[in-house]
Design brief:
Blueprint: E1 4-9, E2 12-17, H1 27-41, E3 48-53, H2 76-84, E4 90-94, E5 97-99, H3 101-108, E6 111-115, E7 119-121, H4 135-143, H5 145-154, E8 158-159, H6 160-165, E9 171-173, H7 177-188, H8 207-221, H9 226-239, H10 242-257, H11 260-274, E10 292-295, H12 299-310, E11 315-318, H13 322-341, H14 347-355, E12 357-360, E13 371-374, H15 380-393, E14 399-402, H16 409-412, E15 422-427, E16 436-440, H17 447-460, E17 463-466, H18 475-491, H19 496-506, H20 512-519, H21 521-533, H22 542-548, H23 574-579, H24 593-610, H25 617-628, H26 637-641
Parallel strand pairs: 2-3, 3-4, 4-6, 5-7, 6-9, 10-11, 10-13, 11-12, 13-14, 14-15, 16-17
Antiparallel strand pairs: 1-2, 7-8, 15-16
Length: 644
Amino acid sequence: MTMVSIDRDGEIAVVTVNNPPVNALGQALRQGLWDAVATLDADPAVRAVVLICAGRTFIAGADVREFGLPPSEPHLPDLVNRIEAATKPWIAAIHGAALGGGFEVALGCRFRVALDTASVGLPEVTLGIVPGASGTVRTPRVAGVAAAVDLVTTGKPARAAKAQAIGLVDAVLTGDLRAGAIAFARAALTAPLPLPASQRPVTDPGPDFWAEQQAAVSKRARGEVAPLRALACVQKAAQAPFDAALAFERATFLELRASDQAAALRHVFFAERAAPRPPHLGETQPLPLRRAGVIGGGTMGAGIAAALRDAGLPVVLIERDAEALARGIANLQAIFDGGVKRGKLTPDQAAARMAGITGATDYAALADSDLVIEAVFEEIGVKRAVFAELARHCRADAVLATNTSYLDPRAIAEGLPDPGRFIGLHFFSPANVMKLLEIVPTPDTAPATLATGFALARALGKIPVQAGICEGFIGNRILKRYRAAAEALLRQGVAIAEIDAAMRGYGFAMGPFEAQDLGGLDIAFLQREGARAAGQNVPETLGDILVRAGRKGQKTGGGWYDYAPGQRQPQPSDTVAALLAGQITPKAPPADIAAHLVGEMAAEGAAILAEGIALNAADIDLVEIHGYGFPRWRGGPIFATTPR
């Protein structure tokens, strides 16, 4: 297959890239573009060149198969320079996404036009690197320093309209991209050409701007190196000649590419890429998903319903009575209103989300649902009663799912006709925000049902991880050991605040005790109490002592810490010190608190893997990153503790 082809529309040449699935910039494609420049420069009949891509997207970035390998010629920075120096102006015609190296190629073109549905961006920091082919140097010359800082330090793409507003693209088109780009090229030839990006002036905003950005990026990065190095590259671009800034960017790129953080982020990238379609599903096809039902409109149920609506699925929400249903509908309205307030949704979009919700107290309303997800109180009798109703009212081929966090799904499904259609789908709260979805099949779950669980995750934009059946599945089982290890350090005399600070220093947003206060100590306490009531031998925890004293976390004004009314800032608590005084037996704690606690997480992960609860180590890392805030740039507990 020819990756780069050339045809002509009069005096306009059209260079078409065709390297499915995402037109990645592998060596063969780079060579093809390099040769196209020479061919078209030598053709006197050509006055301008349109660069367009076949398939679903413009050049979406580097070829992932080359990650970690030495660069091969032609190098991307040289290719971008060659396109910019061509004797005929090139016009990048963008559809889909122009990302990373793909957008750097577009920056080498004299003009950029994009379909209104397209996006552009420089996401390299998400892989622990910086743009390596002028992204940090040409962008400030095209769109200004502030826009460049935002683009390269966050890695977030810009949609076409925003990209045009800040100067990243010259025109936004609708309809036929090829025809529109050719027409744009012809019009451009009637006026003086703009300077190439490398020759455009750039204004240094001054030391106050850079100090502010340094503080903001440092706070957001929480130990991640690449965003700050990307900021340094943009600063260099604003303060040095183009060639010096380009050399600085390239040296930074090459240094970071060999770093531990880049290796960790590549590991996560490949794990995320593989997660939605695990090989053990083979050719099994999922069942159709056109309509869904959710049982329970509390925090979890409303979040699940909102996630389903975000994916465009109509939802029937079932509650036990009219009063509970009204609360559930109000919970959903609050979620969508919050989306409007944060600028994530327009009022019309929020109204459309709500219009797709049908509330009912009669399970008969679920008769046409393809999938029903139970999200009621975590008590086996309550859940069994729900599934008895679902068995009576749902279609025989409807997939029935439980959102249990700790209970054995086999016990929940006991007595259910055709247990092959039953599966565990463990969402994380808030379910419309958190990306992790643990998929828990029982021994009876049919292959098509399992495939449907993964298809649902893809539709919802979530990271699916299959988990075997055990207490807490993968994530909560590791969380239990992590918390127990943190309490063990506390018993050894390490201060609560010191433990939390160590984990924040490692890259977590908050430490184990802060996190418990935020979520509520009573949640795990009630689970332990339930196990004790069932006759299990569950040792008393320090958290139990606090809950029995009325300290359930921020919602009661005190948990591991004290909280002033209306404040979320944790304060050391004399009350907690008094309650736990008899539990502390000072002895030498580990020198590195974070390494010790991460090691405990990894050890539990290794046990989970050995028992077959997780299918591979990367799945455990994904669970911890997407469900529990493990710093992405460390790769997850298994990756972080594996010698390399």
